[in-house]
Specification:
- This protein is mostly beta strands.
- Helix content is 10%, strand content 51%.
- The chain contains two helices and twelve strands, in the order βββββαβαββββββ.
- The protein has helices at 46-54, 67-72, and strands at residues 6-7, 9-15, 18-24, 28-32, 35-42, 56-61, 86-88, 94-96, 101-113, 116-128, 134-137, 140-143.
- Strands 3-2-6-9-10-5-4 form a seven-stranded antiparallel β-sheet.
- The longest helix is centred in the middle third of the chain and has 9 residues, at 46-54.
- The protein is globular.
- The relative contact order is 0.26.
- The model has no long low-confidence stretch (mean pLDDT 94).
Amino acid sequence: MGAFPTGVAIIATEWAGKRFGATINSLTSVSLKPCMLLFCTNEGSATGTAIRKRGLFSVNILGQHQSHLSARFTGKQRNRFEDVAVAFSADGLPLLEGAAAQLCCRVTAIHKAGDHDIILGEVLSGEEAACNPLVFHKGAYGIFQRA
């Protein structure tokens, strides 16, 4: 699957007074009416568990200038949000400033698939910024260039 280039996003939520976030590249559009998407998380991940409990999450599609955030939200750092510019949605969801796009979603279903959970979400709101997206391909970051 490394031969398939993907965008990079950070999913996030707030639960019980703590912020949770994780880097994903499994983000997929599912439906236009209603607007729905899905992503996958490791079974039992702290972020996936918090999203399951809260029922709401944000999707922050990273810009090409944010590869450092991708690495940060993949690693074992305890407070992934420390010194990161964050705004909050009306529902208190963490939105990473400078992202190429930010979406706020409600969990509609969770399905077990091997050692991962597939989380389906309905998009409640979204914003797009004027920047190029970060791309991941064969273990490396890159940028999008129109053909």
